[in-house]
Structure formats: structure tokens, C-alpha cells
Amino acid sequence: MIRKVVFLSMHTSPLDRPGVGDAGGMNVYVDELAASLARRGIEVTVFTRRTDPSRARVIGTPAGYDVIHVEAGPMAPLPIPQLGDWVGEFARQVTEDVLDGGEGRRETDILHSHYWLSGWTGLFVKQVTGLPLANSFHTLGRVKDATRRPGQPSEPLYRIAAEREVITGSDCIIASTEHESLELIERYGADPSRVCVNPPGIDLNLFRPGDRREARKRLGLDDVPTVLFVGRIQALKGLDVAVAAFGMLRDRLPDARMMVVGGPSGPSGVEEELEIRQLAARLGLDGKLIWCGVQPHRRLPIYYRAADVLIVPSRSESFGLVAAEAQGVGLPVVAADVGGLRYVVEDGVSGFLVDGWDPPDYTKALLRVLDGSAYRRELIRGALAAGRRFGWEVATERLLELYAGITNGSR
């Protein structure tokens, strides 16, 4: 029986707001999974790197799990490439805390690391403590390299090497979809018997249908065709493709508008946003492209309900959390035909999958959703049905089964 789980999330905290810096879907996943486990009476502690002196070292969250901020390196945000220098120190402090159970504390049953840096840390902790280690990568370096935008730098070799080491040394690699499990096997030579699949979940009590007119009223919007983009502003997410496609869409639907929810991410995020703003200006989208900035995660349903279609032209996605959230609300999705998006979006049923990243192809798909016909109503019903597949209750039960298999050696 699983009673205590330690999560490792070195490079970003579940307390960080998604859409800011390196915080994104992984933060949401760690936060909601920890909360879901805590509701079942399981003790969960999340270790992350301390980047803010004003943030307490130990925080008990309202969701019932604890976050411990480890002082490893400067107490400030650092680019991910620099965090490798502090993996050893981070692992040392986590190990000491895990071994020092303390009065009244349960013994840890399993380590679950998130992202390749945390997986690297987890290997050190596993070697000293003897605890079983599960790892979720969330993104894979070789997959990102295979689909990166021309001109973007490739992933560093030490990341690829670390990923291979984590795959070899973990008791189980948890993939979000069958597609990701195949990527692990084919691109990294992972042992199929040590790869398991467990899709992330969404809070279906939060991401549920609502009144579109009321949502638009709350956002101060009038009633015109509305395209929505939700995600970090970086080359990987394809906002440039979305904006170019929207520019072409307005040739057919001149009243249409587009909302962008999210902020710059990564070392070139600010530059990426500037270039996209310049693109929007060249396309004459002033006043039609609404920059909404970063929003609290619990506020996202309002944006999903206010929109007519979500566009997700990512160059790679291990899962595609925003697509699942949007479908939970009943919002059809136009997404790139890559990675986990192939699993989340049912092509022609809950939205459309687009091959490649040519803006005209996305424009055609957007118009199919926005044409106002009975088919659009079918897409909304399809989106709702697709979204119901991803409730947290099912995802957590499956994960607990995986944890049990790892701890008793049956995996």
C-alpha cells in the first residue's frame, strides 16, 4: 500500500503560475496530481529549488501536500542549462531529508521525478536511499529536435545523455500516451517492460461547460467569432503559426478576433513575443489580437468558454494539457498532428489535427470549426466526450496501480 510519495521537480515549483518563465503544463500536472493523491490520504512532499528568499522553505498547501524549497545555487531563477551545476547539491539535500524521517513522519514508499533534470537528481537519491524511482519526462530532447522550427538551436548533448541515463536507471518511465512510450523505445532504446503509460488528468469540476455569452461578458468581449491560444510564448508552442493563420482567417471572417493567454518563456521568450507582435502589426491585426497575459489556472475555464475554437500548433507535445482542458469545457480544438495531441484530439470528432505548420492549413481547419453549421454542434459534443476521458480520478487510480507494481517489484 502506498502511503507516502516524494515528487522531485527541481527546475520549477507547482506553486508557480503556469505561463510565467518555465512554468507550464508540468506545474499543473504536479500540483493536481499531488492534490489528488492527498485527497486519498497519501502523504506527498514536493521538492523544488528555492528561487525566492521571501518564500518559506516549507509550505503546506491548501490542497494538502507539502512543498520543500531546497537551497541549491543562487536564490533566483536560473536558465535550465545552468541548473545542471546544482543537481548534486539538490540531490544531497533531498536525500538527507528523505533519510531523516523525523518523529511522526511516514517512511517514503516511492520517488517520482518530473523532467530530465529531476530524473537525474532522482538517480542520485535512489542510489543512496534504495527507494524505487519513477520518472515522467514531460518533454524529450530528441523529440523536440526532430520537430524544432528552422533556426532554433538543438537540445544540448548533455540533456540527451542525461535522459538516456535516467531511462536506464529508473524503475519505471511513465509516458503520457502510447505515442510517447514508442518515442522512448525507438529514440532512446528504452526497455519496453519498464515503460508504462498513464495520461495526465484534468479537473472536470473546474473544466466543465458554461454559458459562452456570460463568459464573454465577464471578459468584456462582444459576440464575434473568437480564436483562443493558451500557452507559453516560445518557439516550441507555435504562436507564430497561430497568428499567421488568424491573419488569413480574417480575410474570410473580418470580425473575428484572437485571444492569447500566456507569457514569454525560456531564454528567447521575450524576443519571440516581440517578433510575433511585429508580425501581427504587419498583418494589420491591431485591435483584433488581444494579449491577455498570464492568467491563474483556475480562471482559464472563462477563456475556454468565451472562445469558439482553441488553436494548438505546437511543434511537440508529450500530452497537450490545454487541449484536454478545452475539450472538458466543450471547446473544439485545432492542433498540430504531433505527439500526445494525436491522442487527446479526435480528428474530425472533437476538432482537427493538422499535418505540419503551414498557416493556410490551420486557417482551413479553423474555418471548418467556425462555419456555424450543424457540424460545429457535433464537434462540441465530440469535444465534451473526449474531455471526459481525462478526469483525475481515473488517472490517479491508474498511477497508484503503477506505483504499487514498482514498489513490489512486479514491474
Can you describe what's shown?
The protein is an alpha/beta fold and 411 residues long. Helices cover 42% and strands 15% of the residues. The protein has 16 helices and 14 strands. It has helices spanning 25-39, 80-83, 87-99, 116-129, 141-147, 157-169, 178-188, 212-218, 239-252, 269-282, 300-306, 321-329, 341-344, 359-370, 374-387, 392-407; strands spanning 4-8, 43-49, 58-60, 66-70, 110-114, 133-136, 172-175, 195-197, 226-230, 257-261, 289-293, 309-312, 333-336, 351-354. The strands form two sheets. The chain has an eight-stranded mixed β-sheet with strand order 3-4-2-1-5-6-7-8, sandwiched between helices. It has a six-stranded parallel β-sheet with strand order 11-10-9-12-13-14, with helices on both faces. Helix 13 links the parallel strand 13 (333-336) and strand 14 (351-354). Helix 3 (87-99) crosses helix 4, helix 9 runs parallel beside helix 10 (269-282) and helix 12 (321-329) crosses helix 15 (374-387). The longest helix has 16 residues, at 392-407. It is globular, with a radius of gyration of 21 Å. The model has no long low-confidence stretch (mean pLDDT 93).
Which helices and strands occur, and which strands form pairs?
Layout (H helix, E strand, L loop, with lengths): L3 E5 L16 H15 L3 E7 L8 E3 L5 E5 L9 H4 L3 H13 L10 E5 L1 H14 L3 E4 L4 H7 L9 H13 L2 E4 L2 H11 L6 E3 L14 H7 L7 E5 L8 H14 L4 E5 L7 H14 L6 E5 L6 H7 L2 E4 L8 H9 L3 E4 L4 H4 L6 E4 L4 H12 L3 H14 L4 H16 L4
Parallel strand pairs: 1-2, 1-5, 2-4, 5-6, 6-7, 7-8, 9-10, 9-12, 10-11, 12-13, 13-14
Antiparallel strand pairs: 3-4
Helix pairs in contact: 3-4, 4-6, 8-11, 9-10, 9-14, 12-15
